[in-house]
Write a structure and sequence with these properties.
about 625 residues, 19 helices, alpha/beta, Rossmann fold, Helix Hairpins, 6-stranded parallel β-sheet
Length: about 625
């Protein structure tokens, strides 16, 4: 890209220092002052009045006129009346010039103070994370970024949005609080205005996050316009821009990629939420695993270059790290998760690992699996399943598509909704029926007979209601379902989608199996990809029904129940099934299961019948 000229750069700098009105006044005052001094210097020169009665030089005439203009000095004693009149005029005009200069400077200073209060001044940061836009995802993103930068005390986060600065500061102060790790700076500006985008210094930022304006129906179009304004800005330097954003409609993905160029990574929020909802419905506890992977507080995914393991097999790499779990290999193209155990690591390939911190990813002495403790049980064959979906939104089509990919032939899905259901198509393994029903009504819910289903999914009416209203309906439905289970003495797996985290905390009293907080999951994903763009390809594989995914298998399928084993033995049991183990879930009576990812491989654990191992497998 062509480098901007020095005139364009100076204009940008000057316009940010001075408003256009102040700049014009300064130019006029300067030109008038110079012209006035030159005119009066010429008069003084031709009057032939100088010190000691000698004719002044041109330089001396200019200097005397300039000094007299800037300060009212005494006239030389013995000077003639014409010279005195000229100096009097110079003194009076000089007082007016200085007074106007002081007034202009004072007015510009007051204006800049007002701009600071309104958040209209450019930031001074560089190497920061820039967030453009404001929506419900901003707070969890800020919390995640602060947690991600815990080791960097000089980290900065800049927010530029079409919102009042004081409102943004109050919301951040209330929700995020005073972060010990990152300084958060807010600025007000129109994200669609190329000049306003420069307030956040996007071309000096290490990453840029674009948030959709959810109050607009064309939110995808606005996101693409912002990306285009950045990538095609006349002041953009010839360097890579790391852009992360959310696209709602998959049909807009190709256009968004063109707008954001090669440096953009787009998160399909509705698709990811739908995929996670379907997977969690079939595997209770999976949402806790995903929350752990996506958050910066626990174990995260890293890419590690380990030359000492070149020529070793993939399974050798799994047992080589005492405090990191290897889940794949990254070479040319997309990362390969759960490759065959005998895959040889080639030069230039990196390992995809799960660890608490990349500083803990160190090669150690491999442990020896206990062959006598390995299980010989076989997998359970698939059987048709019955699923009840209550509610409807744009994620539903992705939920059905994902369920169809996992379900056995002859499975059924019943959708009960009091709004029109969209996105239902024809499926290979599923038979889908829709029922008009208000699930907040107890009699209507009873008529659906939820106890007859293997899985119940409650999705939020996010397309037709505000978040708070939609979550309220979901909460009422969950209370009814819980009461029906206790009354009838039956149990069926329930997964519900919440839009707000505070509602999820309130809904925990219902003791439902899993909650999918859609905004939180998408926010965590955006924050992760903004810090490491390569994770976008890993998430695309993990959350899709194609390729390798995360599964929760009974621990008894890998090791014998009740026998103390280390995690090296669990890895060997997973290898025998063509899978990669990287954690486990311990069942706890009357509470959520204990999720342990990347466990200490040397620690010995006795697994019970209800415990499960977290693996990456093809099916």
């Amino acid at each position: 890209m062509k480098k901007p000229s020095w005139r364009l750069r100076f204009r940008y700098w000057f316009d940010n220092v001075m408003s256009k009105g102040v700049a014009s006044m300064l130019w006029f005052l300067g030109i008038f002052t110079v012209g006035f001094i030159l005119l009066n210097a010429a008069i003084v020169f031709f009057l032939n009045e100088g010190d000691g009665g000698e004719r002044p030089t041109v330089a001396e005439a200019l200097w005397r006129t300039f000094v007299q203009t800037m300060s009212a000095n005494d006239v030389v004693e013995g000077a003639g009346w014409p010279f005195r009149v000229v100096m009097l005029v110079v003194t009076v005009i000089g007082v007016l010039i200085v007074a106007n200069l002081i007034g202009i400077i004072n007015g510009a200073f007051d204006a800049k103070i007002g701009q600071l209060r309104k958040g209209r001044t450019p930031v001074l940061e560089s190497g920061h994370t820039l967030i453009i836009g404001w929506n419900a995802k901003i707070i969890p993103i800020l919390e995640s970024l602060c947690e991600a930068n815990a080791s960097d005390r000089k980290s900065r986060i800049v927010v530029v949005a079409d919102k009042d600065k004081e409102e943004m500061d109050d919301a951040i102060r209330e929700k995020v609080g005073g972060s010990r790790y990152a300084r958060i700076v807010t600025r007000s500006g129109d994200p669609l205005d190329q000049d306003d985008l420069l307030i956040g210094r996007p071309f000096e930022a290490k990453s840029v996050i674009i948030l959709a304006a959810e109050q607009y129906p064309d939110s995808d179009a606005r996101v693409m316009k912002i990306a285009l304004a950045l990538t095609r800005h006349p002041l953009r330097p010839n360097r890579h821009l790391h852009i992360t954003g959310q696209i709602r409609n998959v049909r807009n993905l190709d256009v968004a990629q063109l707008a954001g160029s090669d440096g953009a990574r787009w998160i399909l929020g509705t698709e990811k939420v739908g995929q996670i909802t379907a997977q969690t419905a079939r595997q209770p506890g999976l949402s806790a695993v995903y929350s752990e992977i996506l958050s910066f507080g626990g174990s995260e995914i890293y890419f590690v270059d380990e030359p000492s393991l070149v020529g070793s097999t993939y399974f050798d790499a799994q047992v080589a790290f005492p405090k990191a779990a290897v889940i794949g290999v990254d070479g040319e193209g997309l990362p390969r998760l759960n490759p065959p155990a005998d895959t040889v690591i080639q030069p230039g390939e990196r390992l995809v690992v799960v660890a608490e911190d990349d500083s803990l990813v160190r090669v150690g002495a491999p442990g020896a699996p206990d062959a006598a403790a390995l299980s010989r049980s076989r997998g359970v064959p698939k059987k048709p399943e019955k699923t009840l979906v209550i509610g409807s939104n744009s994620c539903l089509s992705y939920v059905l598509r994902e369920l169809d990919a996992y379900a056995a032939k002859g499975s059924t899905v019943t959708i009960a909704s009091d709004v029109a259901v969209k996105g239902v198509g024809k499926y290979r393994n599923l038979a889908v029926t829709t029922v008009a029903a208000d699930a907040t009504d107890r009699d209507t819910l009873e008529s659906l007979k939820p106890g007859a289903y293997d899985h119940v999914i409650v999705v939020a009416y996010s397309d037709d209601m505000e978040a708070r209203q939609a979550d309220t309906r979901t909460l009422v439905t969950l209370l009814h379902l819980r009461d029906m289970m206790e009354r009838d003495g039956v149990h069926f797996n329930i997964v519900s989608e919440m839009l707000e985290e505070k509602t999820r905390r309130l809904a925990e009293v219902t003791r439902i199996d899993d909650f999918i907080v859609s905004d939180l999951l998408v926010s965590l994903m955006i924050a992760q990809v903004s810090q490491n763009p390569e994770l976008a390809d890993v998430f695309a594989t993990l959350f899709s029904s194609e390729g390798a995914e995360v599964y929760l298998r009974p621990a008894s399928a890998y090791v014998k129940a009740g026998v103390e084993v280390d995690f090296y033995t669990v890895l060997a049991g997973a290898k025998a099934r063509g899978e990669t183990a990287f954690g486990y879930l311990r069942a706890v009576d009357g509470a959520d299961p204990e999720v342990v990812l990347n466990p200490d491989k040397a620690a010995r654990v006795a697994f019970a019948e209800r415990d499960r191992v977290v693996v990456i497998a093809e099916d």
